[in-house]
Each structure stands twice: as C-alpha cells, then as structure tokens.
C-alpha cells in the first residue's frame, strides 16, 4: 500500500488539496493500492474557500514508497510567514532522508523551503509567488513557467490546478502512462505534462479529447501496440465503420490509428535502446519485422523536433517520478 499523506495548513486552497486527492482516489478505484490520509496541527482546518475540514493530528508510520504532499494556502499578497509548526518540518525532512518523496502544490513550496528541502534543488510555485520564493530561499533554483518540477524526490508544482498534473505524473511514473491516461479520462481533465522535459508519452499526449469511440480504440492499441492490428478490428471495437474511425481518430488526435500505434512502438523502442538493447532487438520487441522502419521513425522524430508548438509531433512533455 502507498500512503499519500496530505499535510494541511490553515486557509489552504480546496483545489490544491482536492485535485491531487481525486487523482489518487481514482487510482484506488482502478485497483491500485493507494490510501490517502490527512494530518494537521489540530483537527479543525479552515480553508480559504470557507469549507471546514477535519484532519488527524497523529502522523502515520511512513515507508520510503509513501508520498507527503503540502497543498498551498491563501494569503493577502504573498505566501506569508512560515506555516509549519511543531515537528512538521522535521517530519518532512525525516521522510525524505528515509527515501520518501515530499511534494507541494502552489504556495506549499514555502513549507518545503521552511524545512530546508529546497536548498540546492530545482523547484517551482505559482507564477505570482516565484519572485518571493527565490528571495526567501536563495539556495533554491526557482524555475518559471513550469507545471511541476522533480528534483531528488522533492516535487513541486505551480498554482492550484497544476496539482492534478503533478499527481498524474507521479502515477504515470509508478504505474505507466496508460494508467495515468485512464485516470485523466475519468476525471475529464486535459492530460498535460511539464515543459521541463522533452516529450511525454503518446498515451497521454493524444488523450486530451472527449471521443469515447477513439478512447476505446486507444485503450486497445495501448494494450497491444506490439501486435499486428487490423483497422477492421479496431473499428469493430469502436462500433463504427473503418472510414468513420479514421476520420474521428484524426480529428481527436491528429494521427491515424496506424501512426498512433507506430508512435507507441517508437517510444518503447527508444526506452529499450536507452537501456542498452541493440536496435535490431528493440525493433523486434515492439513489433517491427526489422530495424529499418524503426530507424526511419527515429530519423523522422529527430527532424520533427523543430516542429512548432501545438503540432502532434511537438505537443506535451515527459513523465518523471517519485524519484
């Protein structure tokens, strides 16, 4: 079981908490063993939106595989003074030193800074608070225009809704982008990734649409991309004609089903090659008859790396982890 412990401070933003909590709750609904717990300095927590919350004051026993996440809070103009009290900062540090992951949403980064966890690390926060974070914590490398940043098991995200992106990223790292895509689809959110990395998985990058028929076909291709797949079988799975599927798939993703399958094969082959697998072996492992097609696709990806933002080749960003 993986615990996700939310450390709640007074006047926290509801969406900073609810967004990531929903991601991990949906992951649990899909059969993944996540359990959310909520701790605070006292049982009654006041939120910025006026909805009172109840939390536990006793910390659970944490394992290295667990996550502690600090949602952000509202302040009149800036992030305000230190928010962690008692042994809360020491708890964050101890969990990280034991191999655990510690994260924040929005102004929650100031809590990590208070604990000393940002020193010498890259991080981010809400765009209106970046200057203050850099001023308060000069040993931190505050990155701008990032949805989230991962550095040595310290994960920080930008404002409000970016906590959803961070949580999806963490799920993708642990369980694969297909699982994260299912969660994003269930939550009806755009499956964005951080601009801090080059590319995210095609399983996520081409899921930002609402076509159920196309999602069903993508689910099938995701699970069997290394196998020969006939367009007629994919159309039957979607309950539409081959022509209709091709049109809807292109409208939703910018690709044909075959090109989508090829993108998945290429990503998997690139991963194998990076791990030391010879090109010929990687090509066969992902379903190519030989390495010629793989080499052509790799050459095409290199050429498209200069594509304008927003094109199917350049959309998205890569998926890091609880690292």
UniProtKB/TrEMBL annotation:
Residues 302-323 are annotated as: Disordered. Residues 215-296 form the HTH araC/xylS-type domain. One of its GO terms (molecular function) is DNA-binding transcription factor activity. Keywords: Transcription, Transcription regulation. The keyword Glycoprotein does not apply. InterPro entries: Class_I_gatase-like, DJ-1/PfpI, Homeodomain-like_sf, HTH_AraC, INH-QAR. It holds the Pfam family HTH_18. PANTHER family: ARAC-FAMILY TRANSCRIPTIONAL REGULATOR, HTH-TYPE TRANSCRIPTIONAL REGULATOR RV1931C. This is Helix-turn-helix domain-containing protein. It comes from Glycomyces albidus.
């Amino acid at each position: 079981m993986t615990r996700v412990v939310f450390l709640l401070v007074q006047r926290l933003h509801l969406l900073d908490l609810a967004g990531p909590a929903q991601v991990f709750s949906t992951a649990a609904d899909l059969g993944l063993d996540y359990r959310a717990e909520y701790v605070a300095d006292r049982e009654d927590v006041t939120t910025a939106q006026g909805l009172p919350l109840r939390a536990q004051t006793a910390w659970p026993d944490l394992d290295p595989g667990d996550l502690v996440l600090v949602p952000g809070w509202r302040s009149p103009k800036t992030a305000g003074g230190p928010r962690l009290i008692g042994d809360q900062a020491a708890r964050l540090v101890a969990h990280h030193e034991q191999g655990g992951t510690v994260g924040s949403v929005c102004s929650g980064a100031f809590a990590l800074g208070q604990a000393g966890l940002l020193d010498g690390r890259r991080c981010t926060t809400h765009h209106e608070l970046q200057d203050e974070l850099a001023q308060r914590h000069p040993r931190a490398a505050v990155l701008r225009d990032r949805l989230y940043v991962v550095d040595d098991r310290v994960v920080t995200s930008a404002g409000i809704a970016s906590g959803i992106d961070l949580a999806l990223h963490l799920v993708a790292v642990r369980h694969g982008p297909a699982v994260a895509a299912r969660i994003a689809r269930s939550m009806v959110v755009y499956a964005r990734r951080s601009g801090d990395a080059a590319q995210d998985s095609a399983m996520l990058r081409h899921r930002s649409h609402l076509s159920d028929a196309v999602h069903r076909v993508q689910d099938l291709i995701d699970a069997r991309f290394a196998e020969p797949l006939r367009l007629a079988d994919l159309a039957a799975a979607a309950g539409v004609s081959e022509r209709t599927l091709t049109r809807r798939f292109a409208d939703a993703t910018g690709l044909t089903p075959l090109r989508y399958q090829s993108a998945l094969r290429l990503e998997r082959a690139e991963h194998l090659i990076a791990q030391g697998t010879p090109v010929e072996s990687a090509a066969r492992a992902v379903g190519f008859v030989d390495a010629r097609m793989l080499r052509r696709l790799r050459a095409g990806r290199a050429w498209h790396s200069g594509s304008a933002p927003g094109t199917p080749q350049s959309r998205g960003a890569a998926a890091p982890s609880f690292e």
